[in-house]
Amino acid sequence: MIKVLLTGSQGQLGFSINKLNPKGIQLISLNKNQFDLSKINNIKKNLEYIKPDFIINCGAYTNVDMAEDEKENVTDINANSVKEIALYLKKHGGNLIQISSDYVFDGLNSNAYKVNEKVCPLNQYGLSKARAEKFIQEIL
After folding, report:
1. Nearest CA to 24 among 55, 56, 1, 51?
2. How far, in whole angstroms, is CA 132 from its chain's centroid?
3. Interhelix angle for 40-50 vs 81-92, to 10°?
4. In the beta sheet, which residues pair with residue 34?
5. Among 80, 99, 101, 113, which one is least packed by beta carbons within 10 Å?
6. What is the pTM (predicted TM-score) of this model?
7. pLDDT class for 126, splitting at 50, 70, 90?
8. How does residue 114 score in pLDDT terms, banded at 50, 70 and 90?
9. What percent of the chain has pLDDT over 70?
10. Pairing state between β 54-57 and 25-30
C-alpha cells in the first residue's frame, strides 16, 4: 500500500483532498499542529517516523498581507520547510507534490503563465513560494 503524507489537511485544499478518501492508499492526513512546517528542526524527524512514499504539501503560510510583517515565519513555513522535505526525499526516496501560487509571477503577462516562465514575485508571500520551487529544482 502506498503511504501518502498530506500536510495542511485542515486548509482549503488539504481538506478537499482529505475528503476524497482514495482506495489503496494509506493517507496520513496531518494538520499544522501535528506537522508544524514552522518547526524546521522537527521535519526530518517526523518524516523519518512516517516514512511516506508521497508527500502532498498543502501546508502553507497564506496570509499574504501579514507575510510582509512576518518574513521569517513565512519563509520558514513556505520555503525552508520545503527544502527540508526535499532533502529528506533526496536521501530516502519518495515523491513530492508541492502546491505553489500564482503570486510567484508579477501578474503583468496577458496570457496564461507556463511552468518554465521566469518568476518575478512582488511580495514576501510570492517570494517564499518561489524559493520553495527553487529548492525543489536544485535538490530534486
Report:
1. 1
2. 7
3. 30
4. none
5. 113
6. 0.94
7. very high
8. confident
9. 100
10. unpaired
CA distance 99 to 111: 21
DSSP 38: T
- CB atoms under 10 Å from CB of 70, counted, come to 14
Query: What does the chain come to in residues?
Result: 140
If one counts every other C-beta atom within 10 angstroms of the C-beta of residue 63, the result is 12
> Which amino acid is located at 130 in the chain?
A
Q: Which residue has the cell 508544524?
A: 36
* Coil, helix or strand at residue 7: strand
Strand partners, 5: 28, 55
- CA distances from residue 10 to 30, 44, 105, 125, 127 in whole angstroms, order as listed: 8, 22, 26, 20, 24
Percent of the chain residues topping a pLDDT of 90 = 86
Residue with cell string 510567484: 104
Q: Which residue has the cell 501578474?
A: 107
Three cell numbers written together for 73: 515565519
Detail the DSSP E strand segments found in 1-140: 2-7, 25-30, 54-57, 95-98
Distance CA 12, CA 15 (A): 5
